[in-house]
Amino acid sequence: MSTAGPPRRDVWSLIADEPSLGGDKPHPGGWMQRLCRAAARELGATGAGISLLAHNGDASVLAASGPDTETVEQLQFTLGEGPCLDAFSLGRPVLTPDLALAARTRWPGYAPAVRGHGINAVFAFPLQLGGARLRAMDVYRDQTGSLSTRDLNQGLAFAEAAMSTLLDAQAAADNEHPAFGSSLDGQFEVYQAQGMVQVQLGVSLHEAMARLRAHAYAQDRPLHEVAADVVARRLVLEPDS
């Protein structure tokens, strides 16, 4: 496929401009639904979905551009194989321009099932920061063919926006939780952990806090508990490979 095409557009503006629908979930779920619809529209896709995956094997669909896409997104968890699962485990995008080929070589159960819903190409982007992998975003097309360079970059930008939204939501939840932020000691421990991560990984303070939040989100733990483990040296966050 040709890499030519219109210039990149700011994904945050595209999401903000995407109208809300009556059945949308409360924030942040509703924002994620708008993100999926904006991504599908921007990338010329049939649909897009975001799923939660945990290291214990639990999986669920967080948001999708529509009911049909949510059904397709759920198939890989039912069948135990698919691009979202691979992107999450590998920590890199899984790009599948032709599901007919994938049916023979990679996903003998998932690929035919998805093609039965009119999907012939799928592109999965992990949502991750450092060693913490939060979720994955899938983009579906009814036509075969690779993503252009521009669309690939836009897909990565949408995935980054989704990850940032999840981390911000986690931070807001932590700040509202009575066990967090209610004492100066608890706040100090988070900042102390932030400084330790900055030195250990050689990153900025902003990046260090994002790493702490990403790890807390991925492990479904309060931020202050993760910070306590870092300060006590029970936990050392891993650098990027």
Average pLDDT confidence is: 84
Radius of gyration: 19 Å
The main sheet orders its strands as 2-1-5-4-3
Strand content: 5-15%
Low confidence ranges: 177-185
- Tally the beta strands: 5
Helices, by number, come to 10
Question: Can you walk through the features of this model?
Answer:
By secondary structure, the protein is α+β, with helices and mostly antiparallel strands. Helix content is 51%, strand content 15%. It is built from ten helices and five strands; from the N terminus they run ααββααβααββαααα. Strands 2-1-5-4-3 form a five-stranded antiparallel sheet, sandwiched between helices. Helix 2 packs antiparallel against helix 7 (149-176) and helix 8 (184-201) packs across helix 10 (223-231). The two termini are 31 Å apart.
Summarize the structure.
The chain has helices spanning 11-17, 29-42, 67-79, 83-90, 99-105, 110-115, 149-176, 184-201, 205-218, 223-231; strands at 47-53, 59-64, 94-96, 121-129, 132-141.
